[in-house]
Automatic annotation (TrEMBL):
<keyword id="KW-1133">Transmembrane helix</keyword>
<keyword id="KW-0393">Immunoglobulin domain</keyword>
<dbReference type="InterPro" id="IPR001611">
    <property type="entry name" value="Leu-rich_rpt"/>
</dbReference>
<dbReference type="Pfam" id="PF13855">
    <property type="entry name" value="LRR_8"/>
</dbReference>
<feature type="region of interest" description="Disordered">
    <location>
        <begin position="409"/>
        <end position="432"/>
    </location>
</feature>
<feature type="signal peptide">
    <location>
        <begin position="1"/>
        <end position="27"/>
    </location>
</feature>
<dbReference type="Pfam" id="PF00560">
    <property type="entry name" value="LRR_1"/>
</dbReference>
<comment type="similarity">
    <text>Belongs to the immunoglobulin superfamily. AMIGO family.</text>
</comment>
<feature type="compositionally biased region" description="Polar residues">
    <location>
        <begin position="409"/>
        <end position="424"/>
    </location>
</feature>
<dbReference type="InterPro" id="IPR000483">
    <property type="entry name" value="Cys-rich_flank_reg_C"/>
</dbReference>
<dbReference type="InterPro" id="IPR007110">
    <property type="entry name" value="Ig-like_dom"/>
</dbReference>
<dbReference type="InterPro" id="IPR003599">
    <property type="entry name" value="Ig_sub"/>
</dbReference>
<keyword id="KW-1015">Disulfide bond</keyword>
<dbReference type="InterPro" id="IPR013783">
    <property type="entry name" value="Ig-like_fold"/>
</dbReference>
<feature type="transmembrane region" description="Helical">
    <location>
        <begin position="373"/>
        <end position="393"/>
    </location>
</feature>
<keyword id="KW-0472">Membrane</keyword>
<dbReference type="InterPro" id="IPR032675">
    <property type="entry name" value="LRR_dom_sf"/>
</dbReference>
Length: 493
């Protein structure tokens, strides 16, 4: 009976070993050996410089780093690996001949954090190409032939921190990648150097936070020279941003097919860069950010009187918000001055100074002043127009009458005594007039009653109306006219 018991125990042992191996295989434990063309060290597989035209099959599922650089790979299809490599965090594919990558090629490696596709023959980056890589942090695409970047190529890559696109043929600046709160919220480095960029969205770049501009590399591009470009890079130089300080000699622009350093554009007569102060009016609400070169820094604000600004203090008009910004609830004239922000981080500390100018009037009152001045100006213009209308569009007096009315004996009273300075309007009498000297002729009527011409008494107490005889004959003026002729004796005025 004992040999049968031993045999039964042996069978139970073999069955247990079989079940154990089955469970190990189900759990994805390493059951595949290292490929013949690769060198394996723990969870690292190096298949570099093997002239491989395709990716080796049956890669171990425990692989964490896979090096396929310096081979002859030309296409990366969706089925490039039949095994799902969930532990893979680094994939090196540089120095191959890749000209096509399937949009599903990265589905088997969802936890990839580092991807090197540099020094290949890629020409375009299609939409949703890297959307499966939602935890990727570093992407290297430099030294390819990339000409077009789809606006959706980097969608859903919320963890991407560094993107290298240098040494390509990109001519459009991908602004959607660097806008604050856009597709790549954690992007701290974007290398676009050595491309074919000619024009930049300068106003948009100026608005970017310093921690983005610090890692935005634009050197070795044929940028168009102008003063706005000079002001942009001068500001970055003033802030000691790495993207400018590390490559000052390689920052150039093109003008008349000649290269010029962006900091030496004397031929454009650009004004020197000066840091601008913040401006506010009485009663304004204002927020000033501590624009540091690194995210997540601890920030402390100090007032011009060297007092620390506290957070969320009751009945205080100046406070520090949770993101480290300085907030003025109602700006007062005593708030003007230079404020200092002390920022402390893991890598370095930073000190920033910001000047605030406060105008001693409210913005609303300023508009009222402008409205009053505008109303006064309109009133003056209307007054001038009315005066001109009165002077030139009123009914004509005696000089514009075309037909002379017969004189009235009752109107030509000898007792009338008036002085007129109205010139002779006879068109025939102006031939001998000196054009350079303005002469006015007036005729006086004798004050005595019943006197005729030259003081002689004329019966009938009336003045005779002479007939128009010739060129030199003077005519009597219209008795209804304001100007009347009372004497033949001229008085030169």
């Amino acid at each position: 009976m004992q040999p049968q018991g031993d045999l039964r125990g042996l069978w139970l042992l073999l069955l247990s070993l079989f079940l154990l191996l089955f469970e190990v295989a189900r759990a994805g434990r390493p059951v595949v050996s290292c490929p013949a063309s690769c060198l394996c060290a723990s969870n690292i597989l190096s298949c570099s410089k093997q002239q491989l035209p395709n990716v080796p099959h049956s890669l171990p599922s425990y692989t964490a780093l896979l090096d396929l650089s310096h081979n002859n790979l030309s296409r990366l299809r969706a089925e490039w690996t039949p095994t799902r490599l969930t532990h893979l965090h680094s994939l090196l594919l540089s120095h191959n001949h890749l000209n096509f990558i399937s949009s599903e090629a990265f589905s088997p490696v969802p936890n990839l954090r580092y991807l090197d596709l540099s020094s290949n023959q890629l020409r375009t980056l299609d939409e949703f190409l890297f959307s499966e890589l939602q935890v990727l942090e570093v992407l290297l695409l430099y030294n390819n032939h990339i000409m077009a970047v789809d606006r959706c190529a980097f969608d859903d890559m919320t963890q991407l921190q560094k993107l290298y696109l240098s040494q390509n043929q990109i001519s459009r600046f991908p602004l959607e990648l660097v806008k604050e709160g856009a597709k790549l919220p954690k992007l701290t480095l974007l290398d676009l150097s050595s491309n074919k960029l000619k024009n930049l969205p300068l106003p948009d770049l100026q608005k970017l936070p310093a921690w983005i501009k610090n890692g935005l590399y634009l050197h070795n591009n044929p940028l168009h020279c102008d003063c706005e470009l000079y002001q942009l890079f001068s500001h970055w130089q003033y802030r000691q941003l790495s993207s400018v300080m590390d490559f000052q000699e390689d920052l150039y622009c093109m003008s008349s097919k000649k290269l010029h350093n962006v900091f030496n554009l004397s031929f454009l007569n650009c004004s020197e860069y000066k840091e601008r102060a913040w401006e506010a009016h009485l009663g304004d609400s204002l927020t000033i950010k501590c624009d540091t070169k690194q995210q997540g820094m601890t920030k402390v604000w100090v007032t011009p009187s060297n007092e620390r600004v506290l957070e969320e203090v009751a009945n205080s008009t100046v406070t520090v918000s949770k993101d480290g910004s300085l907030h003025f609830q109602q700006v007062q004239i005593e708030h003007g001055g230079v404020y200092t922000c002390y920022a402390m981080g893991e890598a370095f500390n930073e000190t920033l100074s910001v000047e605030l100018k406060v105008y001693n009037f409210t913005l609303h009152g300023h508009h009222d002043t402008l409205n009053t001045a505008y109303t006064t100006l309109v009133g003056c213009i209307l007054s001038v127009v009315l005066v001109l209308i009165y002077l030139y569009l009123t009914p004509c007096r005696c000089w514009c009458r075309g037909v002379e009315k017969p004189s009235s004996h009752q109107a030509d009273s000898l007792s009338s005594s008036m002085l007129s300075t109205t010139p002779n309007h006879d068109p025939m009498a102006g031939g001998d007039k000196d054009d350079g000297f303005d002469r006015r002729v007036a005729f006086l009527e004798p004050a005595g009653p019943a006197q005729g011409q030259n003081g002689k008494l004329k019966p009938g107490n009336t003045l005779p109306v002479p007939e128009a005889t010739g060129k030199g004959q003077r005519r009597m003026s219209d008795p209804e006219s304001v100007s009347s002729v009372f004497s033949d004796t001229p008085i030169v005025v």
